[in-house]
Amino acid sequence: MRSRQLAPTSGDTTLLTFRPLTRNDFVLLGKWLAEPHVRESWNHDPSPAAIESDFGDSVDGAESAEDWIAELDGRPIGLVQYSRFSDYPDYVSEMAPVYPVGEGVASIDYLVGDPDMTGRGMGSAMISAFVAFVWTHDPTTTSLVVPVNSANERSWRALLRAGFRLVARGELDPDHPIHERAHEVLRIDRPAGES
Length: 195
Prior knowledge:
Blueprint: E1 4-6, E2 16-20, H1 26-34, H2 36-39, H3 48-60, E3 66-72, E4 75-84, H4 89-95, E5 105-112, H5 122-137, E6 143-149, H6 153-161, E7 165-171, E8 182-189
Parallel strand pairs: 5-6
Antiparallel strand pairs: 1-2, 2-3, 3-4, 4-5, 6-8, 7-8
């Protein structure tokens, strides 16, 4: 099982660990998706059947996107999804008018599910640690581009704190029906010399 320990960038000496999502995590994931702070930005049904439908293919390797559980000192605190744009041509087409993405570009989505971990900088620490993980996990990825709904200020500010930079603004279909189409697009590139 793949796992990687990385220290958060906040100066905290604790370690973040990423491991692949398994079906044993589905009950916990359902609890996280039902949390009010998660429901604001993640439009997922937290029922067991919906969790199986939405995440089962990833666990089975039938979906090209990867789902990773973030653990802090062995305690699950969040989820990070990783996907390469080239695996989703419809999404590449949707992104093209706002910010074209090519080969070697991937994206992430993320949530801090544990409510005790919110408001403490853990989101940006988790993102920073996962970005470092991506550079070693997938040497074909040259940059990460993340479109975030403009209304989800906590999310795009966490990306900025994690070293991403704003590269575009534009309209994309929202993941959540309560959001407008306006999005911020943020990017981070593989550091020179890293492979």
